[in-house]
Amino acid sequence: MEDLASNRTLEEHVKRVSEQLSCDALLKLSLITYHYKDKGFSGPISPGLLLFFAGPEEEFHVVCENVYSRYSLGDSQSSLAGFVHELEELLGFIEFQLIRGGWRLADQV
Questions:
Q1: Cβ–Cβ < 8 Å for 91, 56
Q2: CA–CA separation, 101 vs 104, rounded Å?
Q3: Who has greater pLDDT, 44 or 95?
Q4: How far from 53 is each of 13, 15, 36, 49, 67, CA to CA, in Å?
Q5: If you placed Cys at 25, which of 13, 21, 56, 66 could pair as Cys (CB 3.0 to 4.6 Å)?
Q6: Residue 51's domain spans which residues?
Q7: How many domains does the chain contain in total?
Q8: Start-end of H helices in the chain
Q9: pLDDT band for position 19 (cuts 50, 70, 90)
Q10: CB 8 within 8 A of CB 95
């Protein structure tokens, strides 16, 4: 099996997706990714992150609370409810684009 870290198609796909997201959206995805960082795992994507994306509803609110409390700068314009809502919309948008929309890996082949 080809290593995901060196998969050219995946690399191009990630680049195309990231170009279409705002800096704020990329930051939220980075924080979620970092939340699942597993020091004992040497692969490109931690098992915890894969499980989160496979079924985020199971622990979504707990993860949001942990990420928000750890990385929030006390910005008065930001709230946990707002963070949760924005992340729900972002994940829904990504899911829509990957499953039904314009971000198809087959388009790159």
A1: yes
A2: 7
A3: 95
A4: 17, 19, 11, 6, 16
A5: 21
A6: 4-108
A7: 1
A8: 8-19, 23-35, 47-54, 60-71, 80-99
A9: confident
A10: no
